[in-house]
Amino acid sequence: MRVGRLDEQKRCRIGVVAPASRMSPEVAERVPAVAGSLYPDRTPEIFFHPQCFATHGHFAGDDEMRTQSFLDIANDESYDAVWFARGGYGSCRVVEAVMCRLTEPSRRKAYVGYSDAGILLAALYQAGFEAVAHGPVAQDILRDAGEAAVGRALAWIIDRAPEALEPTVSRATKTAAFNMTVLSHLLGTPLQPDLDGHVLMLEEVGEALYRIDRLLFHITSNVAIKRVSGIMLGRCNGITPNEPNFGMNEEEIARY
Amino acid sequence: MRVGRLDEQKRCRIGVVAPASRMSPEVAERVPAVAGSLYPDRTPEIFFHPQCFATHGHFAGDDEMRTQSFLDIANDESYDAVWFARGGYGSCRVVEAVMCRLTEPSRRKAYVGYSDAGILLAALYQAGFEAVAHGPVAQDILRDAGEAAVGRALAWIIDRAPEALEPTVSRATKTAAFNMTVLSHLLGTPLQPDLDGHVLMLEEVGEALYRIDRLLFHITSNVAIKRVSGIMLGRCNGITPNEPNFGMNEEEIARY
What is the pTM of this model? Predict the structure, then answer.
């Protein structure tokens, strides 16, 4: 079942929030420009919640501000999607408060993000939300090939283009995508997702190989995770040097 | 109940093994010299298993070699203690095989280490071993104040000096000490220790504050861990820089 598929007459409204780290201000200029060039006839309206630019130590605003801004968009019937500004770190500090305060309109919209956002996406999935996807964040516009990444997120949000994204967790195809560290930190908590029979896709960024080995030990030792139908290794980018040489690459580690 | 308390006539025999990373060769010269000067009349016999010096990629020998060397010492009645050569990473790859192959003499000796060794120490504690302590490893001789650290490990191994160490887990005083990352990676696995009613002491080395915050989220979200009687923050050394400034120190994070 798909929810939130847009009537093509209606302009898609996307709200961007930052439950973790602060978004770079130039993203708010570059992303709408890309959206306008990709969808000249039905340009989506992209609203960057002012909280995206707030600063509180490591975070884009304090816990209450990040919670409230997420709810501002999620609980507002006029928005079709909640798009994560970026990953970083911080969703775990707001997930309980967010989940307690979501209202009915929040179920009828799409949610897209990855990395740290996987905490909230996992909680939404556990709560039965249907349109929850693992895909680029707004901040990805600043990366190499960032326009293509943002285009994929928009294609899924606007048209649910099936080729655009990996679903974070999809009942239909039974797949689930997670950052390894994020999934590791959900294991043994009430937020641990039920992945029975799913194909589990794992990726990681900026970690040393010994940490990837240790994360895979943790994930594959969990009794519930052992009930997945398979594990796929996604991208492991920005691997930091291992001293001494680890002796295996990430694919060899995962096969082991 | 204490086991393995030594008859003072008998010379203590300590076997050093490296289930994780390789030990530096000079440790095998410096540690016995310190032991001789601290215990001139009853110098312990310290045997460095040749496996401590082996290399297999990241590890001190492959998984089977590290498993077998641990068993060589643990299952040998003539040894009074298994002392971990160092932390690093690797115990999780051998813990299942080690625990399946331990025999009766392994219950009548002491085990001392920390950091990555916490995986094996937790498994030994879950299996009912009594003399399991969180304390310096042989490799600590190379650190600042390394002689004092090694002296504390020896004082506990030889005399069970109560002031020398934090017990990793002790039924008598109901305390438990863990590296945060190691405990996090045990949560939700069959190796998760039962810490009901224990005071839990947590420490970490060489991690950024956002990671410490994330680890404490994971640990305190676990339903079983919520049954500890309290949490103490131990040393957090070598904290790596956080970009941006995290906005709290480790003590403020733990209180939160």
Answer: 0.74
